[in-house]
Amino acid sequence: MPDGDDVAAPTLRPAAFLDRDGTIIVEREFLADPAGVELIPGAADGMRALRRAGFALVVVTNQSGIGRGLFDLPQFRAVQARLDEILAAEEIHLDGVYLCPHRPDDGCDCRKPAPALYCQAAHELGLDLRASLYIGDRLSDVDAALTLGGTGILVRTGYGAAVEAALARSGRAGTHPVALDSLGALVGWAGRVAS
Question: How far apart are CA 76 and CA 5, in angstroms?
Answer without folding.
Answer: 46
